[in-house]
Amino acid sequence: MSDLSEARPVDAVRDGAQVSRRVILLLAVTCGVAVGNVYFPQAISPTVAAALGVSPDAAALTVTAAQFGYAAGIFLLVPLGDRIPHRRLIVTLLGLTGFGLLAASAAPSLGPLVGASALIGVTTVIAPIAGPLAVGLVAEDRRGAVSGTLLSGSIGGMLLSRTLGGTLGEWLGWRAPYLLAATLTLVTAVLLSRVLPRTVPPSRQRYPSLLAEPLRLLRTEPELRRSCFYQAMLFGGFSAVWTGVALLLTSSAYGMGARAVGALALVNVATMLCTPLAGRQTDRRGPDAVNLVSMLGVLAAAAVLAFGGLGGSLGMAALVVGTLLLDIGMQSGMVANQVRFYALRPEARSRLNTAYMTCGYVGGSLGSWTGARAYAAVGWPGVCALVALLTAAALVRHGFARRERRGAAASLPLAVEPERSATV
Predict the structure, then answer these.
(1) Residues 299-311: pLDDT tens digits?
(2) Which of 81, 104, 137, 314 might form a disulfide with 116, Cβ 3.0–4.6 angstroms?
(3) Cβ-count burial 39-62 (b if 16+ within 10 Å, e if not)
(4) What is the pTM assigned to this prediction?
């Protein structure tokens, strides 16, 4: 039985005070630390293979285990953000993640390391929990900016963890990045236990009901479904590009190594500066306006990226500019989507976010799969065409939404006209 209609609002701290900027910034750093725990193993996988005497494919299981664990954590743990006080939940998960990282650093062989990686993935789902917490602690006109700030932290963690992890792994061995990540995670847990305000959980549902609630919300909330569709399309295109660009850079067109992909990804650090701006524009102009601009930006990115297949300096410039446009468009759209669906049910933000993140993750996985096959079938132009097709689908859905709103606005005077006549 759903308790959504009876839940208490959680849009303020107990005493009604607004949370300080330092808490928001600390939450952004925490998101970066947590997300980085999933991505830094990608950079040290070859080092793990050499040190443990296993094949590169076998060592890559540490990455796969962390990613599948993260997906499981989104489904199993993020809904608890509506049931357990945020400070207790976040600090507990950070503590478990820290101990998982320590266990990974001491793993004597690949099997225990893969097991520890799965645990790390499951428990490091802090970003999807911190987002609903943060927007409930600030005024409504700051929610876009706050969402953008937390997303910047996640992007920074995703990008910088690969670079730092790879460099540290080459200098000191594969265990060093795990030890550093454990230290950062546990220190963050201690800090948050001191500064996070106390919140009252809005739901008293049992755990099985919490797990089923995201599906019910998808069925009953059209605006959530729309946000999920936008994210699935744009993140699918994003994943297709980064799957295909690895194949392109290592092909005869460029003849580069796998490190070139990491170097190209570092260009997207600039996105960290753009997502807070997208958040402020969402607060000022509304989510739909930012969604439209983000979709047009991704469509432009597909056109620019098409020149990447030429190779040489011109092709590389197209890849740099195109991937930057793509990342800015996708991440800005994500900020707008979150502001839209967080406003639907303030008492169920964690469950809304579970539905949204799951749909986005499914879209990204399918994008990677279709992107690899598009590249195998027709080469790099096929990947760019796939991005354009997915974005066009999002634009068509956006057009229908605008038409529906205009129709609803036009019918409003007719709905109140009989009431006026009766009064007369």
Answers:
(1) 999 999 999 999 8
(2) 104
(3) bbbbbbbbbbbeebebeeeebbbb
(4) 0.74
